[in-house]
């Protein structure tokens, strides 16, 4: 854990060199290895939306302490993970208070600072100090500058666009969604006696808004060519069929980022593959669990936030943490297709994935973190080879379905199956050449393609009707860019080597 840390080049960090970035389409329309380097949606949408009052505080923005931790001793990992989960819980609780005190905010300009942000800073400071203690008492080193991350700020409705100011369909954030709850739209945050709306849309009052949607037929093509294959390219692919979670295996845990913490994700997940994944899963329990995959040697855990239609439905979790109590509402949609495929590298052969490798792709907190680690890709059937969106949800034409696509990091440091911030042990290949960073080796790249039938959204008088959205932390306002995907590699009977050999030999398996 004391090695030099190489910062990954994220999908949106390479936006300035998107002209040289490369995306290609694999079999079945699945985006290939360099999806991460795509150019993103244009700002030419013709959406009609209204602008919220600039003074309205929409959400709370707190520095992501977990992303700054690059080294945690093994003996401190469990305690640190629990404290990081406490930080998430504190933000969620502060956002809930923000959403339920709109009248007090309207009456007192200092209310948010004095009653919400100030106390939150004190709680965070104490939690960060406990992280310091956990690390240093087992001989680790703590970066004292992390104490400066205790303070949080607020974002107004003008600031809470998924693109954080980049070209995203003119998202000046509308806030015009303050109707009577028809078509899944409600006025701002639920609160007894609150009469000063936050105007941030959504059935639960925390998004999405009209500016989060774009008619895909009006977006300029932005998918670019893949890099040329070298003579050492690994050109095969391996598809594993694990179903669509038709059995509705859901929970709001995340064993990667919050082991041992119930509701550590604060949003609902779909699970395919390994069927016994929760906050308390261990490597041994994962190996002993059943799998939904046809290939019973594939016990890997594939999980992602659910997508919901905000149609007013009361789901099974309507009154539960991670569900309705945290702003994740509406009918959970089961994908009509879920393709899971491992593909190769255009630059080299691949090394088999190590057992229990953990990878998170994308960032669940882009609304407040910014887009450095964003890796969301939204499109429509019939448009995947033309348009991929990161900061908006597509409105698909009649007869076309919504598609979420993921391409995971395809380079591994050769040593660690996880890292303190769950990022630095893996990396994306160079978008132009497909070559891994120095010190990293190519592994089979996990790609996923999820297809959903949704009621077609429409924008009417600045309001979105038939909205759909990905589940997320409540303060992230259900922005499209917060989409992310999680994976734990668990295999039996030498399957990891079989996958790598298939890809290296150019076969379709």
Automatic annotation (TrEMBL):
Keywords: Membrane, Transmembrane, Transmembrane helix
Biased composition (Low complexity): 160-199
Residue intervals passing through the bilayer: 12-33
Composition bias, Polar residues: 225-245
Positions of the DUF1996 domain: 256-458
Keyword DNA repair: no
Claim: Transmembrane is one of the keywords in the record: yes
Sequence segments annotated as region (Disordered): 160-200, 224-245
UniProt xrefs under InterPro entries: DUF1996
PANTHER family reported in the protein's UniProt record: DOMAIN PROTEIN, PUTATIVE (AFU_ORTHOLOGUE AFUA_6G11970)-RELATED, PTHR43662
Name of the featured protein: DUF1996 domain-containing protein
């Amino acid at each position: 854990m004391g090695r030099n840390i190489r910062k990954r080049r994220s999908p949106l960090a390479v936006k300035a060199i998107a002209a040289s970035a490369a995306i290609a389409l694999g079999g079945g329309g699945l985006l290939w290895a360099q999806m991460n380097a795509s150019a993103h949606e244009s700002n030419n949408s013709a959406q009609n939306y209204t602008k919220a009052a600039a003074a309205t505080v929409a959400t709370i923005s707190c520095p992501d302490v977990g992303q700054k931790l690059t080294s945690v001793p093994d003996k401190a990992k469990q305690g640190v993970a629990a404290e990081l989960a406490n930080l998430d819980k504190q933000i969620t609780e502060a956002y809930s208070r923000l959403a339920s005190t709109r009248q007090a905010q309207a009456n007192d300009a200092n209310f948010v600072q004095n009653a919400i942000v100030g106390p939150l800073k004190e709680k965070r400071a104490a939690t960060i100090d406990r992280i310091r203690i956990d690390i240093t008492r087992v001989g680790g080193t703590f970066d004292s500058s992390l104490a400066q991350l205790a303070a949080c700020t607020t974002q107004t409705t003008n600031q809470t666009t998924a693109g954080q100011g980049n070209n995203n369909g003119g998202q000046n954030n509308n806030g015009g969604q303050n109707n009577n709850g028809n078509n899944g739209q409600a006025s701002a945050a639920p609160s007894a006696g609150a009469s000063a709306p936050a105007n941030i849309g959504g059935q639960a009052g925390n998004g999405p808004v009209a500016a989060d949607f774009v008619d895909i037929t009006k977006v300029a093509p932005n998918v670019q060519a893949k890099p040329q294959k070298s003579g050492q390219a690994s050109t095969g692919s391996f598809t594993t069929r694990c179903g669509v979670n038709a059995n509705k295996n859901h929970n709001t845990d995340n064993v990667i980022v919050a082991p041992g913490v119930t509701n550590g994700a604060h949003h609902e997940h779909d699970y395919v593959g390994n069927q016994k994944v929760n906050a308390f899963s261990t490597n041994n329990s994962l190996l002993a669990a059943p799998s939904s995959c046809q290939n019973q040697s594939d016990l890997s855990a594939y999980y992602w936030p659910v997508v919901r239609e905000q149609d007013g439905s009361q789901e099974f979790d309507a009154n539960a943490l991670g569900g309705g109590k945290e702003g994740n509402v509406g009918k959970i949609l089961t994908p009509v297709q879920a393709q899971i495929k491992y593909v190769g590298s255009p630059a080299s052969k691949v090394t088999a994935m190590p057992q229990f490798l953990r990878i998170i792709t994308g960032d669940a907190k882009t609304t407040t973190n910014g887009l450095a680690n964003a890796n969301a890709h939204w499109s429509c059937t019939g448009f995947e080879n033309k348009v991929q969106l990161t900061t908006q949800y597509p409105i698909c034409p009649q007869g076309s379905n919504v598609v979420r696509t993921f391409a995971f990091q395809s380079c591994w440091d050769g040593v660690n199956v996880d890292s303190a911030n769950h990022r630095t042990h893996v990396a994306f290949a160079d978008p132009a050449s497909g070559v891994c960073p120095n010190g990293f080796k190519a592994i089979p790249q996990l790609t996923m393609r999820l297809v959903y039938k949704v009621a077609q959204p429409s924008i009417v008088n600045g309001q979105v009707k038939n909205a759909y959205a990905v589940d997320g932390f409540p303060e992230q306002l259900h922005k499209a860019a917060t989409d992310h995907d999680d994976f734990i590699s668990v295999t039996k009977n030498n399957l990891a080597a079989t996958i790598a050999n298939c890809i290296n030999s150019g076969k379709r398996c």
